[in-house]
Every structure is written in C-alpha cells, then in structure tokens.
Fold this sequence. Notes:
Blueprint: H1 3-15, E1 28-34, H2 53-66, E2 72-76, E3 83-85, H3 89-99, E4 104-110, H4 114-128, H5 133-148
Parallel strand pairs: 2-4
Antiparallel strand pairs: 1-4, 2-3
Amino acid sequence: MDTKRRCVEERVPNHLPDAAMSDTAAFSETKYFRIDQIRPNPFRAIDSYPLDERKVEALRKSIRATSFWDNLVGRVNEEDGKPELAYGHHRLEALRQELGEASRILITIKDLSDAQMLKIMLWENMEQWQTDALGDQANIRALVTAYADGAVQLPPPKPKTPRARLRYAPSFRQGYVAGRDRQDRPYTSAT
C-alpha cells in the first residue's frame, strides 16, 4: 500500500467515526437538475481553495471523448430543495463549460448528514486527486470549521496519545484573534 493511501486511511476514518457513513444507502434516488441550480458541498471553500483549471480541462477532454457517466452524488438541501454536491466540483465545472448552465444532469441523491458530506469530500479530495499542501490545508480547515460550528463531532484522542501529538492551534474561523475571543488551548475533541 502506498504511503499516501495509508495516510488517507489513517486520517479520514479516525476524524469522523465510521458510524457517520454506516447507513448512506438507506435512501437513494437519481434526479435531473439544471447545472446552475447545483450548489457545492457546504464544506468546500471554493474561495480559499479554487478549482484547478488543469483538472477541469482534463475532465472536459474526458467528457468529450466518452461523455459524462452520471457519477455525481449529493443531497437535497431541506430548506430550499436545491441539490448540494458531496464531491465532484471539478466535474461540475467541466460540465458547465461543456454543456452550459441550463443543461440538466443526473445526480444520485442520498440522505447524507453533514458528517457524511464532509467525510465524502475529504476522502475524494485526498484519495482521488492526491491533493497538494494547499488542498490538505483546505481539507483540514473544512474539518476544523465543521467541528467548531458543531456540524460534526470528533472522537476524543486515544487514551495513550502522546501529549506532543496534541497541538495548540488557533481557530481557522475568519475574524478570530488569538487571545481575544477565548483562551488558546489544545485543539482536541474536548475543546
């Protein structure tokens, strides 16, 4: 097993309990949506981690050569009924450029929790695209922000975790000033 894959398998499943993914097939249907109605994963910070045009262009070439394989998964936002992607933001942009915003594409809709949406996005980004340091930072930011906002819960450190592995980390949230809003403290599931 290569080092990157081992790191992915060690990091992602331990950040979000496997129970968060245990029942993703309980509800599943495919529906057509206009491309301009599809929203990104709420944990995908496109402003701070923009799409990679090289990936978009590679996907456009693939779509032109083999068509689109209807391989996007998402959920429907309960408040407004609009779809949110679990993953596939580069694919969606490639489709937008190839087909136009008014085109309709098929999405597999599942009943996904915030924790599931986050885990799917993190897994896809680390495993499929083998992100660079900027991508890793964006994934970590998404996880920390989701935890800080109460959208996901993180398990406590294992009992024999060395203290050196628990880091003091300022918040990733915008507007946070160290020492002003709260005491700086170790970032763990208990904080």
